[in-house]
Amino acid sequence: DIVMTQSPDSLAVSLGERATINCKSSQSVLYSSNNKNYLAWYQQKPGQPPKLLIYWASTRESGVPDRFSGSGSGTDFTLTISSLQAEDVAVYYCQQYYSTPLFGPGTKVDIK
Amino acid sequence: QVQLVESGGGLVKPGGSLRLSCAASGFTFSDYYMSWIRQAPGKGLEWVSYISSSGSTIYYADSVKGRFTISRDNAKNSLYLQMNSLRAEDTAVYYCARDSGPPECSGGSCYFDYWGQGTLVTVSS
Known about the structure:
The structure holds two protein chains of two kinds.
Chain A: E1 4-7, E2 10-13, E3 19-25, E4 30-31, E5 36-37, E6 39-44, E7 51-55, E8 59-60, E9 68-73, E10 76-81, E11 90-96, E12 102-103, E13 107-111
Parallel strand pairs in A: 2-13
Antiparallel strand pairs in A: 1-3, 3-10, 4-5, 6-7, 6-11, 7-8, 9-10, 11-12, 11-13
Chain B: E1 3-7, E2 10-12, E3 18-25, E4 33-39, E5 45-51, E6 58-60, E7 68-73, E8 78-83, E9 92-99, E10 112-115, E11 119-123
Parallel strand pairs in B: 2-11
Antiparallel strand pairs in B: 1-3, 3-8, 4-5, 4-9, 5-6, 7-8, 9-10, 9-11
């Protein structure tokens, strides 16, 4: 079974600064037949359901600000918030869909 | 616009049963895979089950296999989760989510592009 890990567990970043969240899968989620990474990122604010940010590791969902970007391939992935805004305070989850869906444990982002 | 509205949550004793419903609107329900995902209080997200657009393909997480049953009624634009033999560890907010599924993901379940607001299930004596 694939295991998903995220680092750090939490981070505090100053407004306007960069936030970087890492996600690692125990097995590659790169599907060789279509060369796509089966990895998504979600944002969850307190009291709200998760919101899809990124899919196929780097494709931004419609309406998501371009300060959010995803990168990586195979087993190592990164979500970057290029200039943190107050409304970005949330928990961020990665999810692999290479096999039955599995979420990472989450990374909490706060303002420093 | 896409809307998913869950209902049926509540307080139930260990060993009891509950049936959750999810009413979908704003899209062609019968074209999409659907999933149930839960979140225990203060914890992360756990995928529970998915069902294909026709209902012919179903998968469950090991933690609920044999106790929970997912189903759908495409004529009523509705998704269901029958939960039996409930345990304290099933206490969570249960979300229904639209699964982008095939053809995006040829194998089956994919990423979740729309989520409901969730319904709380509490299992306690």
